[in-house]
Amino acid sequence: MSAVDHVSRSGKPAVVAHRGASLEAPEHTARAYELALAQGADGLECDVRMTSDHQLVCIHDRTVDRTSDGTGIVSEMSLAQLRELDFGSWHADGKPAQILTLRELLTLTLDWRRPVRLFIETKHPVRYGSLVEQAILETLQEFGVATPPSADHSRAVVISFSSAGVWRIRRNAPMLPTILLGETSRVLRGSAATAVGATGIGPSIETLRLHPELVDRAAASGRVTYCWTVDELADVQLCAELGVRWLATNTPAQVREWLVGV
Ligand code: G3P
Ligand code: CA
After folding, report:
1. Pairing mode, if any, of strands 117-122 and 178-182?
2. Name one Pfam family in it (predicted).
């Protein structure tokens, strides 16, 4: 069993740092991801968007306004323009930071001293549509991680609220694990995940509290559950009891500590 496999079969949920250790450091920056890795996170989560010159960058919002000292729509800005902005000083830690590209984050993830998984979320609707998925797959190919021997051994997972997006990823990279995210149980309890071939479902913690049966239903069809965003002790306990495989949190150090006791 490889170390990657071992991480997700310990019997407790594996910890995914949502946007990095994003409570302690500015989300989606190298600082937030390096901190999460140093804290022992098993996986990292990032949102990706495409710049006007077709580069993939790690950022959640459609605009740079909330998380930088600039203004503007990411898809209308070039990577060079984004590089001029400070994506760190808005955060309580007060230190400047540059935007990260998907390539830079993959390098950071794959070079880490133990195997860590990167959960890459596509944002929809986006100006560039399926071009984003195509670019993600090309980048994963470049890094040699687009065709893992099995989902359990993959270093990358593509996650999305878009069932069409998940379906396109599965069609073009059948070995790559995918998670269909959903904000309501309606999406996740039906056959949507099966129809698009997702290897897992991704309910929010609010949905899971109301519909804990989702985990068993997914397992019955061979699917794992990835739950977001889990920052409270009671929710960590719930995820552990239900057999959630991956738990995304803004506070990986705290959640790892809690998991010792559950
Ligand atoms: O990990 C999934 C979760 O990140 C989805 O919501 O808005 O934080 O991207 P959002
Ligand atoms: Ca996300």
Report:
1. unpaired
2. GDPD
H or E stretch covering 195: helix 192-196
Q: How far is CA 81 from CA 66, 86, 87, in A?
A: 16, 11, 12
Vertex 173: Cα angle to 197 and 213 (nearest 5): 25
pLDDT at 186: 74
For the chain, how many structural domains are there in total?
1
Is the ipTM higher than 0.90? The answer is yes
Q: Is the pLDDT of residue 69 over 60?
A: yes
Measured from the Cβ of residue 200, the count of other Cβ atoms closer than 10 Å reads 21
Structure tokens that stand for 70 in this block: 């600039």
Provide the angle, in degrees to the nearest 10, between the axes of the packed helices 30-38 and 102-111. 20
* H or E stretch covering 198: none
Centre of ligand 1 from the C-alpha of residue 122, in Å: 10
pLDDT band at 4; cut points 50, 70, 90: very low
Q: What is the CATH number of the domain that holds 59?
A: 3.20.20.190
Q: Is the pTM of this model over 0.90?
A: yes
- For the purposes of burial, counting CB atoms within 10 Å of the CB of 203, is it exposed (0-12), middle (13-18) or buried (19 or more)? buried
Q: Which of 160, 187, 229 has most ligand 1 atoms within 8 Å of CB, for mutation? A: 229
Range of the domain at 199: 3-260
List, for residues 207-229, the tens digit of each pLDDT value: 999 999 999 999 999 999 999 99
Q: How far is the CA of 119 from the centre of ligand 2 (A)?
A: 9
- Whether the pLDDT of residue 6 is over 60: the answer is no
- In this prediction, residue 3 carries a pLDDT of 41
Sign, CA dihedral 193-198-202-208, equals positive
